[in-house]
Amino acid sequence: MAVCVAVIAKENYPLYIRSIPTENELKFHYMVHTSLDVVDEKISAMGKALVDQRELYLGLLYPTEDYKVYPSHQSPCVESTFPNQLCRYGYVTNSKVKFVMVVDSSNTALRDNEIRSMFRKLHNSYTDVMCNPFYNPGDRIHSRAFDSMVTSMMIQVC
Amino acid sequence: MEAAAGGGCGSGPPLLLSEGEQQCYSELFARCVGAAGGGPGSGPPEAARTVPGTVTAAAGPVADLFRASQLPAETLHQITELCGAKRVGYFGPTQFYIALKLIAAAQSGLPVRIESIKCELPLPRFMMSKTDAEIRFGNPAELHGTKVQIPYLITEKNTFKRMDDEDKQQETQSPTMSPLASPPSSPPHYQRVPLSHGYSKLRSSTEQMHPAPYEARQPLVQPEGPSSGAPGAKPPRHKASLIRSFSVEREPHDNSSNYPDEPWRITEEQREYYVNQFRSLQPDPSSFISGSVAKNFFTKSKLSIPELSYIWELSDADCDGALTLPEFCAAFHLIVARKNGYPLPEGLPPTLQPEYLQAAFPKPKRECTLFDSYSESMPANQQPRDLNRMELSIKDTADFPVPTQDVTSDDKQEQNKTRLALKSTADEALPKDMSEDPATSKDSNSLKARPRSRSYSSTSIEEAMKRGEDPPTPPPRPQKTHSRASSLDLNKVFQPSVPATKSGLLPPPPALPPRPCPSQISHHNVNSERSAHPKPPTQLPNYGDFRLQKQSEQVSEAEIHPQLNRAPSQVAESSPTKKDIPHSQPPSKPIRRKFRPENSATESQEPPSTVGGPVSAASGKPHAAVQKQSSKQKKAIQTAIRKNKEANAVLARLNSELQQQLKEVHQERIALENQLEQLRPVTVL
């Protein structure tokens, strides 16, 4: 159900974006981009220690869209009750690298835990990519292991 | 040439060779002659029989050449007969040329007759190339891309050196060509021709590459001396022969060892080379190379950064940004393979797995230093080690799972020291442990909450731990536990009295993972039999322990926690321990226990209502059936209670230790948070 996964660097440029319905890729890019605003808002709003792997809930951003956007960022994910199809969840690491995931909730209601676990997996894979000395932080992520992990998430959920 | 061919033939019709054919044939012939001179001594006997003054091609290379033409053996026999070699007993030039022409004819589908060779055969070129290719260079299919010698990529100008290596490789039949040095204009099977001497000829005609360079090579081969590979060895994957240091330094390589089938297997020579390179980067072979050092080193190989990045991904199994010796060997090997033109595998081949490499090439020094680093990283690794050890212990025996849990940090060190000492001396245990290690290390690798703190010692230390674990565990056990043997008694007690639960009462203290199962089974069985039992008052003192244990143990337990809080306190505490507080609890409790472990096992957060639902539904069942056996079971229950209390005490101790660790970790976290706060104003937007 994860139809789009994006990794965004601290400076808010994408390190990795991948979506399943490839024809709508640009739309996903825009969605992720807009979610960054919400994410940043949450970051500044939080203030204090955001050490935990939390995700922010923001609720629906675009009620008229097909896709729900929940830039759940640093605090626990909260699913919106909006009837739209896609939810967007966000996740931020301590180094201000953001993961945004657009999720299609039309099939089954994704539980918070599952989203968290997906983000955890993402985070782990991202850390692995970072550990690679040949990876320069700020480069686009081309790691095959990362790709395969994201694929597994997108396929499994779909 | 034609005249000579016609004159020398004697019996056959004059041979008309086109110019191209002439060149090709002559080169081939020269090669066969050369091979006769340098090859295994089939030459001399042939030469002895020849007419003095005639150059003859040795039967060996000629036979190889003919076989390489991929004609059936019978056809080849016919050809040899027809060409007159059999008659005269040797392969003179005429016979050779006739034979080649017949081969061409046969390949083009013409019958093998002398008349065939009279016609213009357009194919000889092709055939020759194929035969040449087959002979010299093994299967063309294997040579996708060009094989490369690493140093020659670096020292491209060093054509002479390349020549030497190619000569060496001749014997191993895997000639390589530097892709950088030679424009890969030729079709794949021509790429095998070594660059240096064949280079000019490459340009002239593709086919003539083969014989000419070979010809030139032959004299070089002999002064060079054969490298260690067997001549004529088929396997083209001679990465060992191609290994060169990434720095320009060149080691005299006789590494053209014979390969087993896989390209991913590291031979002993390669291994030594890799280890030497490792030492040059990092004197201590048991330590690891940092990422930056490795990056600089591997960058010298001139592979592209994405490829190097991918190789790193494959080889750094524990993803710690550093390479241990086996990881380094795997990475080096992959780089060498890539340079030789092998596509990088999708996953790390089994022969390059760190565990495999460590087992295949054990190094005693490494173990001792491993132990040192292991003791250093002990505290960090305690919890993951516990998990691993517990998992292992469960796998191995059901008898002594408890001690692994109960071991205090000090005792752990002692035990581990003894275990490591045992490990270093018990290398024969390696194969057995190997089977466990990949599984366990893969398990640990796949843990979601990956214990990155184990990166330092990582697989090797876990192996050390696991290897040494089995032998020494029995002695420490009695020290650690008070009446851990009671767990065995429990089994004895319960087996006769409650046959249904005999399988359920697995040793109470097994590692965390299996806990749900015994309790599940036991509770399930118990539920089916028992009636309502009065709550044992002895349960109460255990509550506190269980609560404590809950916090520190599994994540799943933490998830259960909110649910548990809603449930009756007794039930809440009984479940996380999974220690089976069996029998003595009211029917609703066991039922809940049954469900909750299931929940924990699946890690699904079902709302308490769902738990309550099945509880209420199932509560009716046990009442009827259990009342019959209640008297019989009371005794058993009481003994079980006693045992459980003891077990609980042990777990409480463990819990306190874990609590301490948790506190330490909390403190660290607070410190880090403070630092983060200080840094925050700088980084935020």
From TrEMBL, chain A:
Belongs to the TRAPP small subunits family. Sedlin subfamily. This is Trafficking protein particle complex subunit 2-like protein. InterPro entries: Longin-like_dom_sf (IPR011012), Sedlin (IPR006722), TRAPPC2L (IPR044760). The gene is TRAPPC2L. Coiled coil: none annotated. Keywords: ER-Golgi transport, Transport. Pfam families: Sedlin_N. PANTHER family: TRAFFICKING PROTEIN PARTICLE COMPLEX SUBUNIT 2. It is found in: Cytoplasm, Perinuclear region. Its main location: cytoplasm. The lineage of its organism: Eukaryota, Metazoa, Chordata, Craniata, Vertebrata. SUPFAM superfamilies: SNARE-like (SSF64356). Gene3D superfamilies: 3.30.450.70.
UniProtKB/TrEMBL annotation, chain B:
It comes from Vulpes vulpes. Keywords: Calcium, Metal-binding. Residues 159-195, 218-238, 398-640 are annotated as: Disordered. Residues 21-122, 270-355 form the EH domain. Residues 506-517 have a biased composition (Pro residues). PROSITE patterns: EF_HAND_1 (PS00018), EF_HAND_2 (PS50222), EH (PS50031). Residues 223-232, 624-640 have a biased composition (Low complexity). InterPro entries: EF-hand-dom_pair, EF_Hand_1_Ca_BS, EF_hand_dom, EH_dom. This is RalBP1-associated Eps domain-containing protein 2 isoform X3. The keyword Calcium applies. Residues 425-435 have a biased composition (Basic and acidic residues). Residues 303-338 form the EF-hand domain. The keyword Metal-binding applies. Pfam families: EH. It comes from the Eukaryota. Residues 566-575, 599-608 have a biased composition (Polar residues).
